[in-house]
Write a structure and sequence with these properties.
By secondary structure, the protein is of the alpha+beta class. The protein has 7 helices and 33 strands. The protein folds into 4 domains: about 25-285, Rossmann fold, CATH 3.40.50.1110; about 285-405, Immunoglobulin-like; about 430-520, Sandwich (Jelly Rolls), CATH 2.60.120; about 530-635, Jelly Rolls (Sandwich).
Length: about 625
């Protein structure tokens, strides 16, 4: 294979590597079909027929490059000695990954270390079929133990510097929060097993990429978010440009052709080399920060190599180059896009509001060109000059698929409010100059209908002396923080419909402006992550509900629990398997239909309930299924 390296630009931020690459390096590789190189071999014949480097890159004697076959549990005879990495049955990313790594070592004039490739992926499998305890995972452990043994026999250092994970399509329509939890547990399982060996690296990096298929946008975004929150993970790249240009066949845009798998491997090599040899932890072309100014969004990006540019030749031009704003009421707006150094300015023909999202990947619908599959596209990339072995293409880094929610904490939005309802504040700005104690200086009593449990309160305040008090319903909130304020007020069922700002005995002087009080209309305005240390679970003994009777409107599990609900907000968590019909959850007066299988988290406003009840019940068409792992905890 021939490469031409014009310029390999380094990342700017330093990174302390989690471990060096030293002999023998075992590379655990798992995932599904894109990891094993699934392709139509008649259309896409193998390109690497020979071993990569027979003295440096190895497989175990009884293992294929594309991983053990289905239901092949590795035994001692399969891992008794090493052979050169060679498998003429299928093109995989492994060939080009190690080939590109060797080339990059040569460029840096560094000796290329030994690698043992340990593939244990399995096509078409969900993460639950690849996790700890499954046959594929156990195959990985078998190779892990064998690798350590062989290194010792050869008086070499043993090391597991990184793991590759190419997965997501099979879980694209699953509960993504649950997927991320399982992925975290899978990594911890690998790490615990590796730490039980003599590996030099104790916490290997898990290199993953993004799904690039029509049905996988939410999964791609979830993977990007997950990597951002985990230092032990590195996102190599989005894959949509490979799915677009190097697909398996006309009616299969999920899998790649031989060239696509080679490119996939070369991108992995680039990320691995940067992290371990150049000591610069790899990050893809991705948003680093977002600032809003009226109808403009400013995205500052991490640009791995070269400069930021717009490319409408490699991929078809997408509206807004693949970027859009989704308003809180789910209306999409396409921006005018301008490159400004390492930033993008997105200008929309509407004001950007809290609750909306800046999203990338799905503005082009040209499925008539893509076998009726709407495939993600952006036209944003960097100008990397590293040359691939495929058609002398440069390995440009393309913008990841992402979705960023606009919150009151987003730069430029701290004085904005939740847009899900109309502001109930009608009294304009306030200026107070030595007001008498307890005088109303804004708003009034008993002239508002407070119909919602929660309100988003936002304002700017200048305090010269003293402080004012906000009254909303029965809540009394002192205002002592200067500058921008934004918080949620719990109103529940007030005895008084008052919305007012009063002076106190300190005789407030100053001003308040940009005041807004908007109802929060949906529990989905809260984040969906688990809050720790909430309080004692009030669901008795974590009772599992099994209902196979399908009785109309029946209370499932024979529970209609009377309980004292002492708090205004509870966190509800449960896992549900739905056979048929719909179930309902009642917590106090809160009533919610449940018709999706998965693991769910919700923050539930209770206020002052008429009914002190906890129950699951069947809908009017009945319900069959199972509700388990129920927790209802006060916040």
């Amino acid at each position: 294979m021939k490469h031409y390296l014009i310029l390999f630009l380094l990342l700017l931020s330093s990174f302390n590597s989690l471990g060096a690459i030293e002999d023998y390096n075992l590379v655990l590789s798992s995932g599904q079909s894109l990891s094993i190189g699934h392709t139509d071999q008649n259309l896409n014949p193998i390109i690497f027929p020979n071993a990569v480097n027979p003295e440096k890159v190895f497989l175990f004697n009884g293992v294929r490059t594309s991983a053990p076959q289905y239901n092949q549990k590795l035994v001692a005879n399969d891992v008794s000695f090493l052979e050169p990495l060679k498998d003429i049955t299928r093109q995989t990313h492994a060939y080009s990954m190690f080939n590109m790594l060797e080339y990059l070592y040569e460029v840096e004039k560094k000796p290329f270390p030994k690698f043992i490739y340990a593939p244990h992926a399995r096509g078409g499998q969900k993460i639950s079929n690849l996790e700890y305890g499954t046959e594929p995972f156990e195959n990985g452990l078998t190779m892990l133990r064998a690798g350590e043994k062989l290194a010792a026999q050869n008086n070499e250092n043993f090391n597991v510097p990184f793991i590759t994970w190419i997965h997501g399509e099979s879980n694209a329509n699953s509960n993504l929060q649950e997927y991320k939890q399982k992925l975290g547990k899978l990594y911890n399982a690998y790490k615990n097993k590796i730490q039980a060996t003599s590996s030099i690296t104790r916490s290997p990096i898990l290199f993953i990429d993004q799904t690039g298929v029509s049905y996988g946008h939410e999964m791609a975004v979830a993977l990007w978010q997950f990597v951002k929150d985990n230092d032990s993970f590195s996102l190599v790249m989005p894959k949509y440009f490979l799915n677009r240009n190097y697909f398996n066949k006309a009616d299969d845009r999920t899998h790649l052709n031989a060239k696509g798998y080679i490119l996939q491997g070369e991108y992995f090599a680039k990320a691995i080399f940067s992290s371990f040899v150049l000591n610069k932890k790899w990050k893809p072309l991705q948003p680093e920060s977002l600032k809003i100014d009226g109808n403009k969004a400013f995205l500052t990006l991490h640009v791995p190599e070269g400069n930021l540019t717009i490319d409408t030749q490699t991929l078809p031009e997408a509206p807004g180059f693949g970027l859009k704003y989704i308003s809180p009421d789910n209306i999409e707006f396409i921006p005018q896009v301008t490159v400004q150094g390492n930033s993008l300015m997105l200008e929309f023909n509407t004001l950007i509001e809290v609750g909306g999202k800046i999203d990338s990947g799905f503005t082009l619908d040209d499925r008539y060109n893509t076998a009726n599959q709407k495939t993600p596209v952006t036209n944003i990339r960097d100008t990397s000059e590293l040359i691939s072995s495929i058609d002398q293409l440069r390995l440009h880094n393309w913008l990841v698929q992402f979705s960023i929610e606009i919150t009151p904490q987003t730069l430029g939005m701290s004085s904005s409010v939740n847009p899900s309802g109309n502001s109930i504040w009608n009294d304009g700005d306030i200026v107070s100059n030595m007001s008498a104690p307890f005088t109303i200086i804004g708003g009034s009593y008993n002239d508002e209908s407070l119909d919602y449990a929660l309100y988003r309160v936002s304002f700017d305040v200048e305090i010269e002396s003293g402080y004012p008090i906000l009254n909303i319903g029965d809540s009394t909130i002192p205002i002592t923080k200067k500058g921008k304020n934004s918080f949620v007020a719990i109103v529940c069922e007030p005895t008084q419909d008052m919305v007012s700002i009063v002076s106190t005995q300190t005789m407030f002087t100053g001003s308040m402006h940009s005041i807004s009080l908007k109802p929060i209309l949906s529990e989905t305005n809260f984040d969906q992550y688990r809050v720790e240390d909430l309080g004692e679970n009030i669901w008795p003994n974590n009772v599992t509900i099994d209902n196979f009777e399908m009785d109309e409107l029946s209370v499932t599990g024979d529970y209609f629990i009377k309980t004292k609900l002492q708090y205004p907000i509870y966190l509800l968590e449960y896992e549900i398997e739905i056979g048929e019909g719909t179930a309902y959850i009642n917590i106090g007066d809160f009533h919610k239909s449940i018709n999706d299988t998965g693991v769910f988290y919700s923050r539930v406003p209770i206020c002052i309930p008429e009914f002190g009840r906890l129950r699951f019940s069947a809908g009017k068409f009945g319900f069959s299924g199972k509700v388990s792992n129920i927790e209802i905890e006060p916040i």
